[in-house]
C-alpha cells in the first residue's frame, strides 16, 4: 500500500468520524436542554418538586446521561483505538497524527 492510498484512507476515516459526531450534535443538544430544564425545575420550583424529581429519575433509567454526552463517548473510544496507531482525535473527530517516537 503506497502513501497516497494511506492518506486517502485516513481522510475517509476522518470524514466519517467527523460526520458521525456532527450528526449526533442536534439530538445531544435536545437531551441536554431537557436534562437542564428538569434539573432546574427540581431545584427551583418547590410546588412541583416531587413531579420534577420523579421525572428526573425516570430520565436517568433509560440513560439520558449517556445520550447527553454521546459525542464525547465516541471521541474517547476513537482516541483509544487510534492510540495503537500513534494517532488521536479531537472532540469533533479530526485526526491528530502524533510524531513517531523511536
UniProtKB/TrEMBL annotation:
Q: Which InterPro entries match?
A: NEP1-R1 (IPR019168)
Keyword ATP-binding present in the record's keywords: the answer is: no
Top-rank taxon of the source lineage equals Eukaryota
Q: Give the subcellular location.
A: Cytoplasm; Nucleus membrane
Keywords of the record, alphabetical order, are: Cytoplasm, Lipid metabolism, Membrane, Nucleus, Transmembrane, Transmembrane helix
How does this protein sit in the membrane?
A: Multi-pass membrane protein
Q: Which GO terms describe its biological process?
A: lipid metabolic process
Entry keyword annotation includes Cytoplasm: yes
Q: What is its main location?
A: cytoplasm
Q: Which Gene Ontology cellular component terms are annotated? A: cytoplasm; Nem1-Spo7 phosphatase complex; nuclear membrane
Q: Which family does it belong to?
A: Belongs to the CNEP1R1 family.
What protein name applies here?
Nuclear envelope phosphatase-regulatory subunit 1
Amino acid at each position: 500500500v503506497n502513501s497516497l492510498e494511506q492518506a486517502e484512507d485516513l481522510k475517509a476515516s476522518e470524514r466519517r468520524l467527523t460526520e458521525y459526531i456532527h450528526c449526533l450534535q442536534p439530538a445531544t443538544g435536545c437531551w441536554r436542554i431537557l436534562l437542564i430544564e428538569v434539573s432546574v425545575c427540581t431545584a427551583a420550583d418547590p410546588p412541583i418538586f416531587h413531579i420534577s424529581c420523579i421525572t428526573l429519575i425516570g430520565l436517568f433509567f433509560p440513560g439520558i446521561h449517556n445520550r447527553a454526552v454521546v459525542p464525547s463517548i465516541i471521541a474517547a473510544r476513537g482516541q483509544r483505538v487510534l492510540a495503537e496507531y500513534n494517532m488521536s482525535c479531537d472532540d469533533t473527530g479530526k485526526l491528530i497524527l502524533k510524531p513517531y517516537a523511536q
